[in-house]
Amino acid sequence: MAGKAIRKTAQEELERPEIAARPCLNSMPYRALVFARLHSDEMKVPLYWVAGVADGPWSATNSLKKAVGAHGATCFYCSATLAKDTATIDHVEGQTGDAANAIQNLVLACKPCNAKKGHSPIDAFKPDAGREWLQALHAQVEERLRKLG
Questions:
Q1: 86-101: per-residue pLDDT in tens?
Q2: DSSP H stretches of helix in 30-126
């Protein structure tokens, strides 16, 4: 059996981390993030490269910060232009649980919007932003389900 490559099953291939570990939003700078690998620690945290940025890979939050510096951004809630020093990262669904820092749960926000939102659900804070985020997340889930058959 030596020399034979072990082939992954179709199911294993569909469940690769790079399929799930990506932003649900397709605008810049989110689309500048590319899954690199899972961190080797116990938690298996996804790490990302940022297009146009040397070094890395970084965690989801650090990748978003690097992407803002390289590509600019706008506030997800009010569309104000963000600079590296004015951008904050908002946890859409709060900061509890294993998925708190998942890339799908992070959006860029200006300091005033992030402060106003606080711990409120996204749809209570800005219904249109909530709808946009949920639709993007839904599309990502639908795509994965379609790939599963």
A1: 899 999 987 776 677 8
A2: 60-71, 111-117, 122-125
Name the pairing type of β-strands 81-82 and 33-38.
Answer: unpaired
- Which residues neighbour 26 within 8 Å (Cβ) at sequence distance 6 or greater? 136
pLDDT (tens digit per residue) in 15-69: 566 677 889 999 999 999 999 988 876 667 899 999 999 999 999 999 999 999 9
Cα maximum dimension of the chain:
62
3-state helix, strand, coil in the chain (%, to 5): 40, 15, 40
The Cα 12–Cα 49 span in angstroms is 23
Q: What is the pLDDT of residues 73-86, one digit of tens each?
A: 999 999 999 988 88
Is the previous residue joined to 112 through a cis bond, with omega within 30 degrees of 0? no
- Across the strands, what pairs with 107? 90
- Find where tokens 């399929």 sit: 19
